[in-house]
Specification:
TIM Barrel; 4-stranded antiparallel sheet; Alpha-Beta Plaits; globular; 19% strand; alpha/beta; binds phosphoenolpyruvate; binds manganese (II) ion; 371 residues
C-alpha cells in the first residue's frame, strides 16, 4: 500500500507526527519513506510493506497527513504504474527533463578516446542544439585485452569540455561503485560544469551491489540497460533495486536481446517493448539502436538499419535515444563499426523529430492526446 502525503508536508508537523505514530504501531508492516522533490513541490510517499490486506484503507486515508492511498500490486512497487496511479512520472536533472512525455537524444562517443575527438563531437552536438551526450570512461569489455576505457584520468578534461559546449547531461557507464566517487570528485573540483547520468550496462543489470550503491546516492540519476539474456520482469526488478534504496530517478533502456535469431544484427531489436514499459512502469523509456543493431548496414532505401530501428522506437513513443557517433570511426577504440558520422547528425535528428511528430499524431488519432 502506498500513502501519498499532502504536498510539502513538514516532518516536524503535528499531522506528520500523528500519522507516523499510527503507522509505526501497525503490526508486521514495514514502513519505507521516499521523498520526491518536484519542480514545484516536495512529495512524501510512504510505502507500507508486508501483509497490508488486513489494513483498513479508509482509516489510513483519514490520517491527518495523508492525501491519498494507492493499493499497489506486488511488482515494481515504487517505479511501477499501479491502478488509480496518478503519481508523477519522470524527473528533472541539471535543467533537462526526463519523462514519459518528452524526448531527448544522447548522441556521443561509445568510449572517450582523445581530447580532439571528444571536442569535435561536443562541438557538433552544440551546433545541432543538443544538451545531452554519451561518453564512456569505464568500458566493460568481453575481452580482457581490449581497451578498458581511460577511467578517472579522462574525467577532468571530458567534463570541462562538456561544460564548454553547454552539455548538461552525460550518460556515463559505471562498472564499480568506486567510480561514482571518482565522477563526483572530478565534477566537484571543476565546479560542476556538466551533469552525469550513471549508466548501468547490460552486463551489470543484475549486479545487485552496484545497483544498491547507485540507488543509495541521490546526486545522479541512473540509466539502466535491460539485461541481454534475462526476462523483462527480471530487468524491471533490477530497476526497482535502485528505487528501494532511494533513487527513483531511473530511465530504463532497451538495447536488444542476445540471441542468434537477431543476426545479422548484433542483438534482437526489442523496441516493440517501448509501450509495454510505459504501461508497466512510470520510467522514461530509452532505446539504444547502436548496441541493438551494431552495424552500419543499410537497406536499398539507403537508410541504415540503425536509423530504421531508431524510427521504430521513437514512433512507438520512446523518450530517450542513446546513440553512438564518432568523428573518425576508424580511430574509435570501441564500437567504431556501428558509429554514425558527424555529418549524419543533423539528418539523424531531423529523422527523430519526424518520428516524434508522427508519434504525437498517432496519439491524437487514437484519442489519447493527454497521455
Ligand atoms: C554502451 O552503451 O556503451 C554499452 C556497453 O552498452 P550495453 O551495456 O547495452 O552493451
Ligand atoms: Mn559500445
Amino acid at each position: 500500500m502506498l500513502l501519498i502525503l499532502h504536498p510539502d508536508t513538514d516532518e516536524s508537523s503535528e499531522e506528520y507526527r500523528k500519522t507516523s505514530e499510527f503507522l509505526r504501531a501497525l503490526p508486521n508492516i514495514e514502513i519505507r519513506t521516499h521523498v520526491v522533490q518536484g519542480q514545484q513541490q516536495r512529495l512524501t510517499e510512504i510505502y507500507l510493506l508486508g501483509d497490508t490486506h488486513a489494513l483498513d484503507r479508509d482509516e489510513i486515508a483519514a490520517l491527518p497527513a495523508v492525501e491519498r492511498v494507492v493499493r499497489i500490486s506486488e511488482e515494481y512497487r515504487i517505479l511501477g504504474r499501479h491502478k488509480d496511479e496518478r503519481r508523477l512520472a519522470g524527473f528533472e536533472y541539471n535543467g533537462v527533463t526526463f519523462s514519459q512525455h518528452n524526448l531527448n537524444v544522447m548522441a556521443g562517443l561509445c568510449a572517450v578516446d582523445n581530447p580532439a575527438n571528444v571536442e569535435t563531437m561536443l562541438r557538433a552536438l552544440r551546433d545541432a542544439g543538443q544538451v545531452c551526450t554519451r561518453m564512456g570512461a569505464y568500458k566493460p569489455r568481453t575481452n580482457p585485452y581490449s581497451f578498458q576505457g581511460h577511467g578517472a584520468a579522462c574525467l577532468p578534461w571530458v567534463f570541462e569540455l562538456a561544460g564548454k559546449y553547454g552539455i548538461r547531461v552525460i550518460a556515463m557507464e559505471v562498472t564499480h561503485e568506486s567510480q561514482i566517487e571518482e565522477i563526483d570528485t572530478a565534477l566537484e573540483k571543476l565546479g560542476r560544469p556538466t551533469g552525469v547520468m550513471l549508466q548501468i550496462g547490460t552486463r551489470n543489470t543484475q549486479n545487485f551491489e552496484l545497483l544498491k550503491a547507485i540507488g543509495r546516492q541521490s546526486t545522479y540519476p541512473a540509466l539502466l540497460k535491460r539485461g541481454f539474456g534475462i526476462s523483462l520482469n527480471e530487468s524491471l526488478n533490477a530497476a526497482e533495486y535502485l528505487a528501494t534504496e532511494g533513487n527513483t530517478r531511473v530511465v530504463f533502456c532497451l538495447r536488444g536481446m542476445k540471441t542468434d535469431a537477431g543476426a545479422p544484427h548484433r542483438n534482437m531489436v526489442d523496441f516493440a517493448h517501448v509501450p509495454v514499459l510505459k504501461r508497466l512502469t512510470r520510467m522514461p523509456v530509452c532505446i539504444d539502436p547502436s548496441h541493438s543493431v551494431g552495424s552500419r548496414e543499410a537497406a536499398p532505401d539507403r537508410i541504415l538499419d540503425l536509423v530504421h530501428a531508431t524510427a521504430q522506437g521513437v514512433v512507438a513513443g520512446a523518450n530517450l535515444v542513446l546513440v553512438d557517433f564518432h568523428p573518425q570511426p576508424r580511430q574509435a577504440l570501441v564500437d567504431g563499426p556501428q558509429a554514425l558520422l558527424l555529418d549524419e547528425l543533423p539528418r539523424f535528428l531531423d529523422d527523430v523529430a519526424l518520428c516524434r511528430e508522427t508519434y504525437l499524431q498517432r496519439q491524437r488519432l487514437w484519442g489519447n492526446a493527454a497521455c
